[in-house]
Automatic annotation (TrEMBL):
Taxonomic source organism: Aurantimonas manganoxydans (strain ATCC BAA-1229 / DSM 21871 / SI85-9A1)
Superkingdom of source: Bacteria
Descriptive protein name: Possible extracellular solute-binding protein, TRAP-type dicarboxylate transporter, DctP subunit
Entries under SUPFAM superfamilies matching the protein: Periplasmic binding protein-like II
GO process terms (BP): transmembrane transport
Gene3D superfamilies to which the protein is assigned, alphabetical: Bacterial extracellular solute-binding protein, family 7 (3.40.190.170)
Alphabetically ordered keywords of this record: Signal
Pfam families: DctP (PF03480)
Amino acid sequence: MTIDRRRLITTTGAVALASALGLRTTRQAAAAQKLTGVTYLPPSYADLAYGSQGLVDRINEKAGETVAIDFYDSGRLLSADEQLPALRSGTIDFMFHTTSYITRSLPILGITGLPGVVGDLAKNPDRLKRGSPLFQLIQDELKKNGLTVLSLGGGIMEPEYIWSTESAPIRSLDDVKGKKIRVVSFEATKVMEDLGGAAVRIPSSELYLAMQRGTVDAAVANISTINGRSIQEQVGQVYRMPLTAFAIGVFVQTDRWEAMDQAVRDAFMDGVEWFDTHSAKVANTEYFEEKYWPAFRELGIEEIEPDAAAVERFNEISAGVRDSWVQEVGEDVGRRAIALAHGEDA
């Protein structure tokens, strides 16, 4: 093959000129768009982090030429309280967040932790999957605040129960009276107070010592928190009344999301669809049901299942919490959301 020296010099000069002018070749112009995402959850919470890390890995592995994810877990970039403001300001492109943390800012998400409702959502996870009527209602309400939820993990995590120490056992609703109960969410606080307990807000990082020292007698918590903080060493029984719950969602700023190239959104949504199918399902089944509960039973932790009468009584006691939430989100929206969560036509 004969090399045309004149053509080589001409081509080389053109490339050099383009570089000097700051122009990019077609290959460079097609470089993957980088999106920054965050979660405050550390990898040590393998159950809850399974979905978020899986979404990021899937996108980076399958769509690396289109979109690249710059992901910060464990609050390394932003704390839990800083995530939502950062998303709204455009500092980050997306966030994973537990709904219980942000219901005061985004009240519609309260449906994922509403007492008297979460039991049905736990038994029927499809009611929160992408495309379901309830998910669409939540989506529509969030968009009024300039936000879009792409997925809620395909359902809520196993509900939060009451885990109590051996010295102050709680085996019924009546046993709550006079006890100091650790809570996190507003909904759990209100329910414990209505039952005659003293609600105490304590972060999970301080819960072990709080129970060891008797600062609290019991904790309203998801099993992930119990296992992740070794609280099973401090409790003697668990009253499995589904009090509250949470989902883990993927959130974006609506305007920012809709301004992205369609190819970028399509690549990201492939990961979202995977997240919607696997996040809550794997945590609830492969971690909680198949690993944690059997291990706790071997430790001798007593499990108390409430009977139908206790569940009905709890639903009556927690009616005030639901009514307050309905007033907050609006009568029509609130009643529709509760009906859809119960599997009724809204």
